[in-house]
Design goal:
With about 500 residues, this protein is α/β, with parallel strands linked by helices. It folds into three domains: about 140 residues, Cobalamin-binding domain (Rossmann fold); about 210 residues, tm_1862 like domain (pyruvate-formate lyase- activating enzyme), CATH 3.80.30; about 120 residues, no CATH class. About 35% of the residues lie in helices and about 15% in strands. The protein is built from 17 helices and 16 strands. The strands form four sheets. Strands 2-1-3-4-5-6 form a six-stranded parallel β-sheet, sandwiched between helices. The protein has a six-stranded parallel β-sheet with strand order 7-10-11-12-13-14. Strands 8-9 form a two-stranded antiparallel ribbon. Helix 1 links the parallel strand 1 and strand 2. Helix 13 crosses helix 14. About 5% of the residues have low confidence.
């Protein structure tokens, strides 16, 4: 039994709740009276309520995010009906802004807005002493990292072995991109480097091999970035993998040199481009040097083994279908291994709302608050683009069609226009964007390439077979066999042994 239960509903089991561990690490004298209990949104909500009540807590602290707000509200409703005396404290980005009128806020006793690392313990102390707090909403002052206990000791051995482990060397972002919550976190604050590296060493000593950095601007402070990279490079062991988010137009020589030393499959950079349209960038207060970015991409692709995950956003104010298409084609030409096509979300607290009237921005009222249409992209077009993004994820990003995907625009057409053509064709065929078996998707893609684009079936079949072998398949699918020499149906040919393997674990959650 625990007086304090720290909990959240993760999007998937594999995600370990970083914020809960920070709160637990900073409970001080209350730590023996507290426990972390994690769930995921795929579990039955009444079962979650039952598990929380079984702890007989006096206080439940809940992390609320865009992906779990509706489910969390249901859990709180059940708990309050059964045990109304339990104090419910909310925190997290979804309840840190625009709290008035939120159903989940009305259900709770208190809401801590901002970074609650230290404030949560203070509020718990007061409540456990029987004190009543004058305000429902409690603003957490921005904590100094020198006062914050780091959370890494509270990843369990099971976490290290089976889940994504998040780390951060800094918080905040120097940029003011209007769609992003990180733009509200100013100034950027660094964890004391010696303290952070000591914590990383402990994780390495415990056997952790995959690190996902959540810093929004990993390469902002070059000295710190270089120190981190050199630290991990010096301790590299086969199987290690490091994910960083980086500014695309900032990659000086001193970083390039150390990045180039990492072996294949060990580094992934998430690069937020979002738009190639300078006018759109200006509207959303995003500054980028596109020439420098292209040079950095060329260096990373040609001189290093870094896996590049690049982001573009559909639906930004001022972005037309044509300008997004041009940006997508431009990004394809730069050659990142993965392109995440995202739909603009209207996150609470972000200043993107200042464009609502001029650009007629209409968003879904329910999480994840994606845009439905705007002045330049009507609802029907936005739906086409939503399907484009989903199918691109299944084909372009899955790693199953590395050789096949470029065939979609092999007739020298625009990659965007041809993939949109495939997307429209596929949806007309199957009328769905989920629960598509890989074997079925392969057959449909083969049909599109050979019948709609009229590519040589033998060439397409050989390209499919290359991808099959790359992903470990030893026998050719039946629909390919009539186009492949029989001796190649289940034999890996010597000329294909040199094909590149899938490079990374794609930690993108």
């Amino acid at each position: 039994m625990s007086d304090i239960v720290l909990t959240t509903l993760n999007a998937k089991f594999i995600h370990a709740a970083f914020g809960l561990r920070y709160l637990f690490a900073n409970l001080g004298d209350l730590q023996p009276r507290a426990v972390i209990a994690e769930f995921d949104i795929n579990l039955r909500l009444l079962d979650i309520a039952e598990a929380l009540l079984a702890r007989e807590p006096k206080i439940i602290g809940l992390g609320v995010y865009i992906w779990n707000v509706a489910e969390t509200a249901e859990v709180i409703t059940a708990i309050k009906k059964l045990r109304p005396e339990i104090k419910i404290i909310l925190g997290g980005p979804e309840v840190s802004y625009e709290t008035e009128g939120q159903k989940i806020v009305e259900l709770a006793d208190h809401v801590i807005t901002g970074e609650a690392d230290l404030k949560f313990a203070e509020v718990c102390q007061q409540l456990l002493r029987g004190e009543s707090l004058p305000n429902k909403t409690i603003l957490a002052e921005l904590p100094e990292f020198s006062r914050i206990a780091l959370p890494y000791d509270f990843y369990t051995e099971a976490d290290l072995a089976h889940r994504i482990v998040y780390v951060e060397a800094s918080r905040g972002c120097p940029f003011t991109c209007e769609f992003c919550l990180s733009s509200l976190d100013i100034p950027v604050r660094q964890v004391p480097l010696d303290k952070f590296l000591a914590a990383m060493q402990k994780l390495l000593d415990r056997g952790l091999k995959q690190f996902k950095f959540v810093d929004r601007t990993f390469n902002l402070n070059i000295l710190t970035s270089k120190a981190l990279l050199e630290f991990f490079l010096a301790r590299y062991q086969p199987g290690m993998f490091f994910h960083f988010e980086m500014i695309p137009d900032r990659l000086p020589a001193e970083l390039r040199e150390v990045i180039a030393k990492f072996p294949p499959g060990s580094l992934q950079f998430e690069v937020g481009i979002q738009t190639f349209n300078p006018e759109v960038g200006s509207l959303i207060s995003r500054r980028q040097n596109y020439e420098r970015m292209a040079d950095n991409f060329n260096y990373l692709r040609n001189e290093t083994s870094v896996h590049i995950h690049a982001d573009l956003i559909i639906g930004l104010p001022g972005e037309t279908l044509e300008s997004f298409a041009a940006g997508f084609d431009r990004l394809i030409a730069l050659g990142p291994q993965e392109i995440q096509v995202g739909i603009l979300k209207r996150l609470r607290g972000t200043p993107i709302i200042r464009h609502d009237a001029e650009w007629q921005m209409i968003y879904n009222a329910h999480p994840p608050y994606e845009i439905l249409q705007n002045k330049l992209l009507d609802f029907a077009t936005m739906q086409r683009l939503r399907r484009f993004a989903r199918y691109w994820d299944l084909v372009g990003n899955s790693g199953n069609f590395i050789a096949v995907t470029p065939l979609i625009w092999s007739n020298n057409a625009s990659p965007f226009n041809n993939f949109l053509r495939f997307s429209d064709w596929l949806f007309a065929k199957i009328h769905r964007t989920d629960s598509i078996a890989l074997a079925r998707l392969m057959e449909l893609l083969f049909e599109f390439l050979t019948r709609e684009l009229e590519l040589d079936p033998k060439l397409v079949a050989e390209t499919f077979w290359q991808d099959c072998q790359r992903t470990g398949r030893r026998d050719a699918p039946n629909f390919l066999k009539e186009f492949l020499p029989q001796e190649n149906w289940s034999v890996i040919r010597e000329r294909d042994r040199s094909l590149p393997k899938r490079q990374s674990r794609h930690i993108t959650a």
